[in-house]
Amino acid sequence: MKRFFIGAAALAMTAPAIAQEAEEAAPKTVAEVMEMAGDADWIAPNPDSTIYMRVPHGLIVIVLSDDLAPGHVEQVKTLVREGYYDGLNFYRVIDGFVAQGGDAAEEKDKGSAAASLVAEYEEPIPDGLAFTPLGNFDGYAPEAGFINGMPAGIDRERDSVWLAHCTGAFAFGRNNERDSASTEFYITLQPQRYLDRNLTVFGRVIWGMDVVQAIKRGRPNNGGVIENEEDWTPILSARLASDVPEEELLDLQMMDTNSDVFLELIEARRNRMGEFFYVQHDYLDLCQLQLPVRLKPVEGESE
Amino acid sequence: MKRFFIGAAALAMTAPAIAQEAEEAAPKTVAEVMEMAGDADWIAPNPDSTIYMRVPHGLIVIVLSDDLAPGHVEQVKTLVREGYYDGLNFYRVIDGFVAQGGDAAEEKDKGSAAASLVAEYEEPIPDGLAFTPLGNFDGYAPEAGFINGMPAGIDRERDSVWLAHCTGAFAFGRNNERDSASTEFYITLQPQRYLDRNLTVFGRVIWGMDVVQAIKRGRPNNGGVIENEEDWTPILSARLASDVPEEELLDLQMMDTNSDVFLELIEARRNRMGEFFYVQHDYLDLCQLQLPVRLKPVEGESE
């Protein structure tokens, strides 16, 4: 069973025992960096900015940005609090592109939510924004990096910042009008960076991306909507974590992207060390670094 | 129903009517380019180099390279012809990474296949190789592009070429030894370019990537193998298209990456035009350009 695994080193829970001296000098493997992460390097998502979305085949947890796109974040919180998405559907699901959900028929009352939103594709850089640079070229931004767990682009010259369309980005769709987003959301199934600054990303899936990938695709019509409504995937419920009964909450923790260990992780992913790798690329694609997320270890139990 | 679609323009089957003069001068939308593609721009995959792999929930079609990694291609053809994969499983399926299949127990007789293969991570550039350049920076290769439908990297200075780990790449796994690949294959679920030149890619999924994305993930053990064997996904059969009964064949066609229209498609994806887009990036990630694949239109029927 030990043969034929690719990247098994990255998954091993125990790093090889190496001398302290060598550890400090040599580039680290991903497994070694993950071993270094202490409890302080893991943070729980803000329950007021976390959505628990249930579909028949599982749970999707989405964290909303506390830094950017406040209008979109407030809108989706209002919709979720008022139960808007309950009983609606994923109705436009295109493999390799997006899973789009909401009210295909555009008939449901939006309650106190806005009929349309001012675009927040990119924004002036907020004072004191925590931005951890990726540290190499990015094709879609002058500088790429991470803002409190979210992949992002920044243009310091233009005083502008935005969240990036990596896999699991959470955003609102729109029609051709700039300010036409309102209720319909999508989750990217693959990186779609060309959409950066063309739509407003304001969150990301941190748990259950496998559930998103398993949402039924179905046969699309010309606009991409799944023709047969029986192939739509219902949204059973969407709730803010702060409104979810405690016994249904997962004790999720995200690696703190402002930590030193996350900087080490960037380096360990930029050049993959360890016996498995014959070539290092000295390059890291922004969307290649998936945010480490874990269930908080139970005290007294080993991980 | 017309609201809230993202990228609907890319899917629309009818390009806006525009004057011939403007068409020649202005950058084209993806839809306009797809309209330009004539029958000669679509080619059927070589049935001797195409695998039909059936799992309980659908069909996966993999095209093998006719240009690179001949040792690996010959090995998998031998294994497929001798029915090696029939009844084996996808047993290591990690969301966002790979779906790995074969014989987890390493017990099945390999028949006339080799016990291990000489690595073909990269190779000297073959005489007359058709290489269509992507035309912008790539972080993982001096030059990125396409070789007869496959995303690839090339290093002309080192006289070296290789297929790239974009989504749907088909490759053999190995242990830490360079020449240890043999039977176990993986399909990438997301781009994994850091594996380029570290493993041998020798094909890609051209149909049924939605089926691959829906393969059950399950709970992994430390090496990533799905702990509960009941959660493995069986490979019902794997056959070369040339051995598949005609009534079971799909009339698949891939866009010819050596065609002028494919060059136009690269440009249309590098800068997304059309009313929907407010920002063009003048950049295209290699893995962002999914190879257009279609079912050959039936004569007399509109698409």
From TrEMBL, chains A, B:
Query: What is its EC class?
Result: isomerase
Give the Enzyme Commission number.
5.2.1.8
Ranges where the PPIase cyclophilin-type domain occurs: 56-250
Any single GO molecular-function term of the entry would be:
peptidyl-prolyl cis-trans isomerase activity
Q: Which UniProt keywords apply?
A: Isomerase, Rotamase, Signal
**InterPro entries (UniProt xref):** Cyclophilin-like_dom_sf, Cyclophilin-type_PPIase_dom, E_coli_cyclophilin_A-like
Please give the Pfam families that the UniProt record associates with this protein. Pro_isomerase
Q: What superkingdom does the record give?
A: Bacteria
From which residue to which does the signal peptide run?
A: 1-19
What is the name of this protein?
A: peptidylprolyl isomerase
Q: Which organism is it from?
A: Aquisalinus luteolus
**Species classification:** Bacteria, Pseudomonadati, Pseudomonadota, Alphaproteobacteria, Parvularculales
